[in-house]
Amino acid sequence: MFARIYQPAKTAMQSGKAKTHFWLLEFEREMAAKIEPLMGWTSYGDTQSSQVRIKFDSKEEAVAYAKKHHIPFEVNEPNIKQPVLKSYADNFTTNRRKPWTH
Question: Where do the domains of the chain lie, and which CATH numbers do they carry?
Fold first, then answer.
């Protein structure tokens, strides 16, 4: 039983950072998915890896929980890109590269 601790990324439909200020502890799957022959649904043999996701307010709380319950874990830090700030006047500079040539 191996756990992954991470901060979820925003969805493609979000422009803001709502629902990304918490950390998740999620278990890795131990068994491969199998397709049920009657309905064709995908199922997993273990409930813990496919359905258990524990939410924490901070990374430290998630790490403390994993250590307390002797769960091996890996912490994945979020990859946050900082926006490049530029002035409005930079849009009109003459020395910028042009996307086409005449």
Answer: 3-78 (3.30.160.190)
